[in-house]
């Protein structure tokens, strides 16, 4: 059976962006793991028994970044499933898109992560390393741009 994890691609809009270029003012939150290769990823984690996928995404975001569901706006219409092998076993990760209500909200990392960054799309893709994560970030950004 595939391992399943769920998470949120979290972004914030910087107030300084000119209104004509709203999407230029978007930054994505990536967390650097404190284990393994110290890769950068949005907050995500495994589904607990009795939890639905979206509950998992919000719980993991709270545990890993210190963000409450009430501090985020879930963006309707965006959901992405990634499938890839981890140590020879299939893994599914489901991401939703969420916007920070206050772009200055403090991030509080758990011991699972050693650093965080707010990054523009290009830098987020560079940090994310994995092709499927880069493609997901670009797709989420495109989705946001199409809604403007």
TrEMBL record:
Role, per record: Catalyzes the asymmetric hydrolysis of diadenosine 5',5'''-P1,P4-tetraphosphate (Ap4A) to yield AMP and ATP. Exhibits decapping activity towards FAD-capped RNAs and dpCoA-capped RNAs in vitro.
Coiled-coil annotated residue ranges, if any: none
Organism in which the protein naturally occurs: Piaya cayana
Cofactor(s), by name: a divalent metal cation
GO terms, biological process: AMP biosynthetic process; ATP biosynthetic process
Pfam family, one: NUDIX
Catalytic activity reported: P(1),P(4)-bis(5'-guanosyl) tetraphosphate + H2O = GMP + GTP + 2 H(+); a 5'-end FAD-phospho-ribonucleoside in mRNA + H2O = a 5'-end phospho-adenosine-phospho-ribonucleoside in mRNA + FMN + 2 H(+); a 5'-end CoA-ribonucleoside in mRNA + H2O = a 5'-end phospho-adenosine-phospho-ribonucleoside in mRNA + (R)-4'-phosphopantetheine + 2 H(+)
Domain of life per record: Eukaryota
Family the UniProt entry places it in: Belongs to the Nudix hydrolase family.
Entry EC no(s): 3.6.1.17
UniProt keywords, alphabetically: Hydrolase, Nucleotide-binding
PANTHER family according to UniProt: BIS(5'-NUCLEOSYL)-TETRAPHOSPHATASE [ASYMMETRICAL] (PTHR21340:SF0), DIADENOSINE 5,5-P1,P4-TETRAPHOSPHATE PYROPHOSPHOHYDROLASE MUTT (PTHR21340)
Protein name per the record: Bis(5'-nucleosyl)-tetraphosphatase [asymmetrical]
Domain Nudix hydrolase, first and last residues per copy: 1-141
Record-linked InterPro entries: NUDIX_hydrolase-like_dom_sf, NUDIX_hydrolase_CS, NUDIX_hydrolase_dom, Nudix_hydrolase_domain, Tetra_PHTase
CDD domains, per the entry: NUDIX_Ap4A_Nudt2
